[in-house]
Amino acid sequence: MRVLVVAVLVLCQAAAPLSAVPRKLPPIQSERFARDLHDKNVDHVLTLYTDRAVFIEPGGKTHKGLDEIRKLYDRMTTAFDSDLHLTMTSFEQTRTFGIEHGTFTETLRAKATGATRNIIGTYVFLHEKQTDGSWLIARQKWTEAH
């Protein structure tokens, strides 16, 4: 019995240290994303993306790269006030990628008319680990519920 206990202790010490195990991406990035959109801080939102990020709108229109994503956000924040709420439903991670699935609700208020539109849907964020250890959004897909 003593040999078994010693063998287990040796195996536990030989196992990979806890720091080598991938850690879950904190949901703070999604919270910051929603807050920055609400505050119309486009420059700050864009720091969450890789240079080659892809943004897919609910209708399927795709925006590739930071320049196209900036144009989209500039148009949206100029025309609308947004109240976006994200709820993460799952998160899976490898050493270099994290996939966040969730639901969202958003109220858009048109600045020109004051008309509001309530949107409900799902989202998928693909996060990519950078060489400095930070995580950035490489791909976003939004789907509107009908």
Give the structure's gist in a few sentences.
The protein has 146 residues and is α+β, with helices and mostly antiparallel strands.
Q: Any chance you could write out the topology, listing elements then pairs?
A:
Blueprint: H1 2-14, H2 28-38, H3 42-46, E1 49-56, E2 62-64, H4 65-79, E3 80-93, E4 97-110, E5 116-129, E6 135-144
Parallel strand pairs: 1-6
Antiparallel strand pairs: 1-2, 3-4, 4-5, 5-6
Structure, described:
The protein has 146 residues and is of the alpha+beta class. It is built from 4 helices and 6 strands. The protein has helices at residues 2-14, 28-38, 42-46, 65-79; strands at residues 49-56, 62-64, 80-93, 97-110, 116-129, 135-144. The protein has a 6-stranded mixed beta sheet, covered by helices on one side. It is globular and about 45 Å long. Residues 1-23 have low confidence and may be disordered.
Order of helices and strands: HHHEEHEEEE
* SS summary, helix count: 4
Level of helix content? 25-40%
Q: How large is the share of residues in beta strands?
A: 35-45%
Q: Could you give a short account of the major beta sheet?
A: 6 strands, mixed
Shape: globular
Instruction: Briefly note the structural class of the backbone.
Output: alpha+beta
Low-confidence stretches: 1-23
Ends: how far apart?
A: 63 Å
Task: Count all strands and give the number.
Answer: 6
Question: Any key phrases for this structure?
Answer:
146 residues; alpha+beta; 6-stranded mixed β-sheet; 4 helices; 6 strands; disordered N terminus
